[in-house]
Amino acid sequence: AQERALDRDCTTLSRHVLQQLQSFSADAQDLSALMNRIALAGKLIARHMSRAGLMENVLGFTGDVNVQGESVKKMDIYANDVFISVFKQSGLVCRLASEEMEKPYYIPENCPIGRYTLLYDPIDGSSNIDININVGSIFSIRQQEGNDEDGSALDLLQNGHKQIAAGYILYGPSTMLVYSIGRGVHSFTLDPSLGEFILSNENIQIPQHGPIYSVNEGNFWQWEESIRNYIRYVHRHEGYTARYGGALVGDFHRILFQGGVFLYPGTQKKPDGKLRLLYEAAPLAYLAQQAGGRASTGMQEIMDVIPKKLHERVPLIIGSKEDVALVESFITEGV
Ligand code: AHG
Ligand code: MN
Ligand code: MN
Ligand code: MN
Protein backbone atom coordinates (compact mmCIF):
# COMPACT_ATOMS: atom_id res chain seq x y z
CA ALA A 1 0.00 0.00 0.00
CA GLN A 2 2.88 2.31 0.77
CA GLU A 3 4.36 1.69 -2.67
CA ARG A 4 0.97 2.50 -4.21
CA ALA A 5 0.78 5.71 -2.18
CA LEU A 6 4.25 6.68 -3.31
CA ASP A 7 3.46 5.78 -6.89
CA ARG A 8 0.38 7.97 -6.79
CA ASP A 9 2.33 10.91 -5.39
CA CYS A 10 4.64 10.53 -8.36
CA THR A 11 1.82 10.61 -10.89
CA THR A 12 2.40 14.18 -11.82
CA LEU A 13 0.78 15.81 -14.81
CA SER A 14 3.80 15.51 -17.09
CA ARG A 15 4.17 11.81 -16.34
CA HIS A 16 0.42 11.26 -16.85
CA VAL A 17 0.58 12.78 -20.33
CA LEU A 18 3.33 10.30 -21.31
CA GLN A 19 1.29 7.44 -19.82
CA GLN A 20 -1.75 8.64 -21.79
CA LEU A 21 0.18 8.77 -25.05
CA GLN A 22 2.00 5.51 -24.30
CA SER A 23 4.93 7.02 -26.06
CA PHE A 24 8.17 8.82 -25.38
CA SER A 25 8.30 10.33 -28.87
CA ALA A 26 9.39 13.93 -29.34
CA ASP A 27 5.76 14.96 -29.85
CA ALA A 28 4.70 13.18 -26.65
CA GLN A 29 7.55 14.84 -24.76
CA ASP A 30 6.51 18.21 -26.20
CA LEU A 31 2.90 17.80 -25.09
CA SER A 32 4.05 16.62 -21.68
CA ALA A 33 6.34 19.64 -21.34
CA LEU A 34 3.55 21.93 -22.55
CA MET A 35 1.12 20.64 -19.93
CA ASN A 36 3.84 21.11 -17.34
CA ARG A 37 4.11 24.77 -18.32
CA ILE A 38 0.31 25.14 -18.01
CA ALA A 39 0.65 23.67 -14.52
CA LEU A 40 3.37 26.23 -13.71
CA ALA A 41 1.05 29.03 -14.86
CA GLY A 42 -1.65 27.66 -12.57
CA LYS A 43 0.74 27.59 -9.62
CA LEU A 44 1.89 31.16 -10.23
CA ILE A 45 -1.69 32.44 -10.49
CA ALA A 46 -2.86 30.46 -7.45
CA ARG A 47 0.04 31.83 -5.40
CA HIS A 48 -0.65 35.42 -6.47
CA MET A 49 -4.35 35.08 -5.69
CA SER A 50 -3.77 33.50 -2.28
CA ARG A 51 -1.97 36.68 -1.18
CA ALA A 52 -4.25 39.12 -3.00
CA GLY A 53 -5.68 40.63 0.16
CA LEU A 54 -2.21 41.20 1.62
CA MET A 55 -0.52 42.95 -1.29
CA GLU A 56 -1.06 46.20 -3.10
CA ASN A 57 -1.98 46.28 -6.77
CA VAL A 58 -3.43 42.79 -7.01
CA LEU A 59 -7.17 43.34 -6.70
CA GLY A 60 -9.46 45.83 -8.35
CA PHE A 61 -9.73 47.25 -11.83
CA THR A 62 -6.99 48.48 -14.13
CA GLY A 63 -9.28 51.20 -15.48
CA ASP A 64 -9.06 49.74 -19.01
CA VAL A 65 -11.77 48.09 -21.08
CA ASN A 66 -10.84 44.96 -23.05
CA VAL A 67 -11.80 43.87 -26.57
CA GLN A 68 -14.92 42.27 -25.03
CA GLY A 69 -16.05 45.66 -23.72
CA GLU A 70 -15.44 44.47 -20.15
CA SER A 71 -13.71 46.44 -17.39
CA VAL A 72 -10.41 44.68 -16.89
CA LYS A 73 -9.29 43.44 -13.48
CA LYS A 74 -5.62 43.63 -12.45
CA MET A 75 -5.72 39.86 -11.98
CA ASP A 76 -6.91 39.39 -15.61
CA ILE A 77 -3.73 41.11 -16.80
CA TYR A 78 -1.44 39.40 -14.30
CA ALA A 79 -2.78 35.97 -15.32
CA ASN A 80 -2.65 36.87 -19.00
CA ASP A 81 1.03 37.77 -18.67
CA VAL A 82 1.81 34.64 -16.63
CA PHE A 83 0.78 32.41 -19.54
CA ILE A 84 2.92 34.46 -21.94
CA SER A 85 5.93 34.32 -19.62
CA VAL A 86 5.79 30.58 -19.00
CA PHE A 87 5.86 29.90 -22.74
CA LYS A 88 8.69 32.24 -23.68
CA GLN A 89 11.91 30.31 -24.44
CA SER A 90 9.80 27.13 -24.33
CA GLY A 91 9.95 26.56 -28.08
CA LEU A 92 6.58 24.84 -27.65
CA VAL A 93 3.99 27.56 -28.10
CA CYS A 94 4.49 30.23 -30.78
CA ARG A 95 1.20 32.07 -30.53
CA LEU A 96 -1.13 32.86 -27.66
CA ALA A 97 -4.72 34.05 -28.19
CA SER A 98 -6.51 35.25 -25.10
CA GLU A 99 -9.79 36.81 -24.04
CA GLU A 100 -7.78 39.80 -22.85
CA MET A 101 -5.86 40.47 -26.07
CA GLU A 102 -7.44 41.83 -29.24
CA LYS A 103 -4.75 40.20 -31.39
CA PRO A 104 -2.67 37.06 -30.64
CA TYR A 105 0.75 37.42 -29.00
CA TYR A 106 3.57 35.92 -31.08
CA ILE A 107 6.71 34.29 -29.66
CA PRO A 108 8.86 34.38 -32.79
CA GLU A 109 12.16 32.68 -31.91
CA ASN A 110 12.62 29.18 -33.39
CA CYS A 111 8.92 28.58 -33.87
CA PRO A 112 8.38 26.50 -36.98
CA ILE A 113 4.92 26.15 -38.51
CA GLY A 114 2.99 23.36 -36.81
CA ARG A 115 4.05 24.43 -33.36
CA TYR A 116 1.32 24.84 -30.79
CA THR A 117 -1.03 27.77 -30.27
CA LEU A 118 -2.46 28.37 -26.79
CA LEU A 119 -5.98 29.80 -26.67
CA TYR A 120 -6.93 30.82 -23.15
CA ASP A 121 -9.15 32.68 -20.76
CA PRO A 122 -6.59 33.71 -18.15
CA ILE A 123 -9.13 34.40 -15.41
CA ASP A 124 -12.65 33.09 -15.88
CA GLY A 125 -15.20 34.56 -13.48
CA SER A 126 -13.38 37.86 -12.95
CA SER A 127 -16.38 39.24 -11.06
CA ASN A 128 -15.52 36.78 -8.25
CA ILE A 129 -11.89 37.89 -7.83
CA ASP A 130 -12.32 40.79 -5.42
CA ILE A 131 -14.66 38.81 -3.17
CA ASN A 132 -12.45 35.73 -2.93
CA ILE A 133 -14.92 33.36 -4.58
CA ASN A 134 -13.62 30.68 -6.95
CA VAL A 135 -12.34 31.59 -10.41
CA GLY A 136 -10.59 29.56 -13.09
CA SER A 137 -8.31 29.63 -16.13
CA ILE A 138 -9.42 27.85 -19.31
CA PHE A 139 -7.00 26.62 -22.00
CA SER A 140 -7.17 25.02 -25.43
CA ILE A 141 -4.22 23.82 -27.53
CA ARG A 142 -4.24 23.85 -31.33
CA GLN A 143 -1.53 23.44 -33.95
CA GLN A 144 -0.59 26.48 -36.05
CA GLU A 145 -1.38 25.88 -39.71
CA GLY A 146 0.44 28.03 -42.29
CA ASN A 147 2.76 30.91 -41.38
CA ASP A 148 0.20 33.52 -40.34
CA GLU A 149 2.58 36.26 -41.54
CA ASP A 150 -0.01 39.04 -41.30
CA GLY A 151 -0.93 38.11 -37.73
CA SER A 152 -4.55 37.55 -38.69
CA ALA A 153 -4.50 34.03 -37.17
CA LEU A 154 -7.15 32.98 -39.70
CA ASP A 155 -6.15 29.32 -39.22
CA LEU A 156 -7.71 29.53 -35.73
CA LEU A 157 -11.14 30.05 -37.31
CA GLN A 158 -11.83 26.31 -37.43
CA ASN A 159 -14.12 24.08 -35.40
CA GLY A 160 -13.42 22.52 -32.01
CA HIS A 161 -12.29 19.21 -33.48
CA LYS A 162 -9.01 21.00 -34.23
CA GLN A 163 -8.23 21.04 -30.51
CA ILE A 164 -5.34 18.80 -29.50
CA ALA A 165 -5.83 19.30 -25.75
CA ALA A 166 -8.07 21.36 -23.50
CA GLY A 167 -8.73 21.90 -19.85
CA TYR A 168 -8.99 24.34 -17.00
CA ILE A 169 -7.52 25.22 -13.63
CA LEU A 170 -10.03 25.77 -10.82
CA TYR A 171 -8.79 28.05 -8.04
CA GLY A 172 -11.04 26.82 -5.24
CA PRO A 173 -10.52 25.44 -1.71
CA SER A 174 -7.85 23.43 -3.47
CA THR A 175 -6.33 24.28 -6.83
CA MET A 176 -7.28 21.64 -9.39
CA LEU A 177 -6.25 21.12 -12.98
CA VAL A 178 -8.63 19.16 -15.25
CA TYR A 179 -7.51 18.21 -18.76
CA SER A 180 -7.92 15.91 -21.71
CA ILE A 181 -5.69 15.11 -24.68
CA GLY A 182 -8.46 13.08 -26.25
CA ARG A 183 -8.09 10.02 -24.02
CA GLY A 184 -10.58 10.80 -21.29
CA VAL A 185 -10.81 13.56 -18.69
CA HIS A 186 -8.50 13.55 -15.66
CA SER A 187 -8.13 15.82 -12.66
CA PHE A 188 -5.08 16.77 -10.64
CA THR A 189 -4.91 18.47 -7.25
CA LEU A 190 -2.11 20.86 -6.38
CA ASP A 191 -0.09 19.68 -3.41
CA PRO A 192 1.40 22.99 -2.25
CA SER A 193 3.95 21.21 -0.08
CA LEU A 194 5.30 19.52 -3.22
CA GLY A 195 4.44 22.27 -5.69
CA GLU A 196 3.09 19.51 -7.91
CA PHE A 197 -0.31 18.70 -9.37
CA ILE A 198 -0.98 15.10 -8.31
CA LEU A 199 -3.49 12.85 -10.06
CA SER A 200 -6.79 12.80 -8.18
CA ASN A 201 -9.42 11.42 -10.62
CA GLU A 202 -8.99 9.47 -13.86
CA ASN A 203 -11.52 9.01 -16.67
CA ILE A 204 -14.14 11.27 -15.13
CA GLN A 205 -17.60 10.57 -16.60
CA ILE A 206 -20.46 13.07 -16.43
CA PRO A 207 -23.63 11.28 -15.17
CA GLN A 208 -26.19 10.85 -17.99
CA HIS A 209 -28.58 13.00 -15.93
CA GLY A 210 -28.12 15.20 -12.87
CA PRO A 211 -30.18 17.45 -10.56
CA ILE A 212 -28.34 20.70 -11.20
CA TYR A 213 -29.38 23.47 -13.53
CA SER A 214 -26.96 26.39 -13.62
CA VAL A 215 -28.12 29.64 -15.22
CA ASN A 216 -28.35 33.35 -14.41
CA GLU A 217 -32.11 33.69 -13.90
CA GLY A 218 -31.64 37.46 -13.72
CA ASN A 219 -31.77 37.33 -17.52
CA PHE A 220 -35.14 35.51 -17.52
CA TRP A 221 -37.09 38.17 -19.41
CA GLN A 222 -34.32 38.68 -21.98
CA TRP A 223 -34.42 35.03 -23.12
CA GLU A 224 -36.43 33.39 -25.88
CA GLU A 225 -39.76 31.99 -24.70
CA SER A 226 -38.47 28.44 -25.27
CA ILE A 227 -35.75 28.91 -22.63
CA ARG A 228 -38.30 30.45 -20.24
CA ASN A 229 -40.43 27.32 -20.79
CA TYR A 230 -37.47 25.08 -19.90
CA ILE A 231 -36.93 27.08 -16.68
CA ARG A 232 -40.65 26.85 -15.84
CA TYR A 233 -40.38 23.07 -16.36
CA VAL A 234 -37.48 22.66 -13.89
CA HIS A 235 -39.22 24.99 -11.43
CA ARG A 236 -42.32 22.77 -11.49
CA HIS A 237 -40.64 19.38 -11.41
CA GLU A 238 -39.11 17.71 -8.35
CA GLY A 239 -35.46 16.76 -8.38
CA TYR A 240 -33.88 19.93 -9.75
CA THR A 241 -31.66 22.31 -7.80
CA ALA A 242 -30.20 25.65 -8.89
CA ARG A 243 -26.47 26.34 -8.52
CA TYR A 244 -24.85 29.40 -10.16
CA GLY A 245 -21.45 30.65 -9.13
CA GLY A 246 -20.73 33.39 -11.65
CA ALA A 247 -17.65 31.54 -12.92
CA LEU A 248 -18.19 29.10 -15.77
CA VAL A 249 -15.25 26.93 -14.65
CA GLY A 250 -16.71 26.33 -11.17
CA ASP A 251 -20.22 25.75 -12.48
CA PHE A 252 -18.96 23.32 -15.12
CA HIS A 253 -16.71 21.50 -12.64
CA ARG A 254 -19.72 20.83 -10.37
CA ILE A 255 -21.66 19.41 -13.31
CA LEU A 256 -18.71 17.31 -14.47
CA PHE A 257 -18.89 15.44 -11.16
CA GLN A 258 -22.57 15.64 -10.19
CA GLY A 259 -24.36 15.93 -13.54
CA GLY A 260 -26.93 18.45 -14.73
CA VAL A 261 -26.70 21.35 -17.17
CA PHE A 262 -25.16 24.81 -17.37
CA LEU A 263 -26.68 27.24 -19.77
CA TYR A 264 -25.83 30.72 -20.94
CA PRO A 265 -28.48 31.36 -23.63
CA GLY A 266 -28.63 34.22 -26.07
CA THR A 267 -30.89 37.17 -25.34
CA GLN A 268 -32.84 39.44 -27.66
CA LYS A 269 -30.06 42.06 -27.34
CA LYS A 270 -27.23 39.49 -27.56
CA PRO A 271 -28.52 36.46 -29.52
CA ASP A 272 -25.04 34.85 -29.34
CA GLY A 273 -24.98 35.15 -25.55
CA LYS A 274 -21.88 36.14 -23.58
CA LEU A 275 -19.46 33.23 -23.62
CA ARG A 276 -16.63 33.06 -26.13
CA LEU A 277 -16.25 30.03 -28.39
CA LEU A 278 -12.50 29.59 -28.84
CA TYR A 279 -11.35 29.83 -25.21
CA GLU A 280 -14.47 29.11 -23.12
CA ALA A 281 -17.14 27.04 -24.92
CA ALA A 282 -14.96 24.92 -27.23
CA PRO A 283 -12.43 23.71 -24.61
CA LEU A 284 -15.22 22.84 -22.17
CA ALA A 285 -17.20 21.18 -24.98
CA TYR A 286 -14.11 19.07 -25.72
CA LEU A 287 -13.98 17.99 -22.06
CA ALA A 288 -17.75 17.41 -21.92
CA GLN A 289 -17.58 15.14 -24.97
CA GLN A 290 -14.57 13.26 -23.59
CA ALA A 291 -16.49 12.75 -20.32
CA GLY A 292 -19.62 11.35 -22.05
CA GLY A 293 -21.56 14.60 -21.88
CA ARG A 294 -22.55 17.17 -24.51
CA ALA A 295 -22.30 20.84 -25.40
CA SER A 296 -24.63 22.59 -27.81
CA THR A 297 -25.57 26.10 -28.93
CA GLY A 298 -29.17 24.86 -28.83
CA MET A 299 -29.11 24.35 -32.59
CA GLN A 300 -25.62 22.91 -33.22
CA GLU A 301 -22.88 20.95 -31.41
CA ILE A 302 -20.40 23.46 -29.98
CA MET A 303 -17.57 21.31 -31.35
CA ASP A 304 -18.86 21.86 -34.90
CA VAL A 305 -19.17 25.65 -34.75
CA ILE A 306 -16.77 27.46 -37.12
CA PRO A 307 -16.09 30.98 -35.81
CA LYS A 308 -15.94 33.95 -38.15
CA LYS A 309 -13.76 35.92 -35.75
CA LEU A 310 -11.33 35.24 -32.91
CA HIS A 311 -13.59 36.51 -30.11
CA GLU A 312 -16.81 34.97 -31.45
CA ARG A 313 -19.51 34.38 -28.83
CA VAL A 314 -21.93 31.45 -28.74
CA PRO A 315 -24.95 30.43 -26.67
CA LEU A 316 -23.84 27.51 -24.45
CA ILE A 317 -25.81 24.55 -23.12
CA ILE A 318 -23.37 22.04 -21.60
CA GLY A 319 -23.46 19.03 -19.27
CA SER A 320 -25.27 15.70 -18.99
CA LYS A 321 -26.45 14.22 -22.28
CA GLU A 322 -30.08 13.92 -21.15
CA ASP A 323 -30.24 17.40 -19.65
CA VAL A 324 -28.70 19.10 -22.69
CA ALA A 325 -31.21 17.20 -24.87
CA LEU A 326 -34.09 18.33 -22.65
CA VAL A 327 -33.14 22.01 -23.08
CA GLU A 328 -32.80 21.46 -26.85
CA SER A 329 -36.26 19.84 -26.96
CA PHE A 330 -37.79 23.09 -25.66
CA ILE A 331 -35.83 25.09 -28.24
CA THR A 332 -36.77 22.90 -31.21
CA GLU A 333 -40.36 22.66 -29.98
CA GLY A 334 -40.40 26.44 -29.83
CA VAL A 335 -39.01 26.80 -33.35
P1 AHG B 1 -14.84 36.13 -17.68
O1 AHG B 1 -14.68 36.51 -16.25
O2 AHG B 1 -13.68 35.33 -18.23
O3 AHG B 1 -15.21 37.30 -18.54
O4 AHG B 1 -16.04 35.10 -17.77
C1 AHG B 1 -17.19 35.35 -17.04
C2 AHG B 1 -18.27 34.51 -17.65
C3 AHG B 1 -18.36 33.11 -17.07
O5 AHG B 1 -17.28 32.76 -16.28
C4 AHG B 1 -19.61 33.13 -16.23
O6 AHG B 1 -20.33 31.94 -16.37
C5 AHG B 1 -20.39 34.28 -16.84
O7 AHG B 1 -19.46 35.18 -17.39
C6 AHG B 1 -21.21 34.98 -15.82
O8 AHG B 1 -21.93 35.96 -16.54
P2 AHG B 1 -23.16 36.72 -15.83
O9 AHG B 1 -22.52 37.54 -14.75
O10 AHG B 1 -23.77 37.53 -16.92
O11 AHG B 1 -24.08 35.65 -15.31
MN1 MN C 1 -13.84 38.72 -19.06
MN1 MN D 1 -14.47 33.46 -18.89
MN1 MN E 1 -11.77 35.93 -18.43
UniProtKB/TrEMBL annotation:
Entry-linked Pfam families:
FBPase, FBPase_C
Family statement: Belongs to the FBPase class 1 family.
Q: Does the keyword Metal-binding apply?
A: yes
MF terms from GO for this chain are: fructose 1,6-bisphosphate 1-phosphatase activity
According to its UniProt record, which reaction does this protein catalyse? beta-D-fructose 1,6-bisphosphate + H2O = beta-D-fructose 6-phosphate + phosphate
- List the keywords (alphabetical): Calvin cycle, Carbohydrate metabolism, Cytoplasm, Hydrolase, Magnesium, Metal-binding
Q: Where in the cell is it found?
A: Cytoplasm
Q: What is its EC number?
A: 3.1.3.11
NCBIfam families from the entry?
PRK09293.1-1 (NF006778)
The residues the record assigns to binding Mg(2+) 1 are: 99, 121, 123
Give the pathway listed in the UniProt entry for this protein: Carbohydrate biosynthesis; Calvin cycle
Q: Where is the Fructose-1-6-bisphosphatase class I N-terminal domain?
A: 12-202
**Annotated positions binding substrate:** 124-127, 216, 244, 274
Q: SUPFAM superfamilies, alphabetically?
A: Carbohydrate phosphatase
Positions bound to Mg(2+) 2: 121, 124, 280
Subunit-structure text: Homotetramer.
Q: What is this protein called?
A: Fructose-1,6-bisphosphatase class 1
Co-factor requirement: Mg(2+)
The record's section on InterPro entries has:
FBPase_C_dom (IPR044015), FBPase_class-1 (IPR000146), FBPase_N (IPR033391), FBPtase (IPR028343), Fructose_bisphosphatase_AS (IPR020548)
Q: Which residues form the Fructose-1-6-bisphosphatase class 1 C-terminal domain?
A: 206-330
The record describes how the cofactor is bound as:
Binds 2 magnesium ions per subunit.
Gene designation per UniProt: fbp
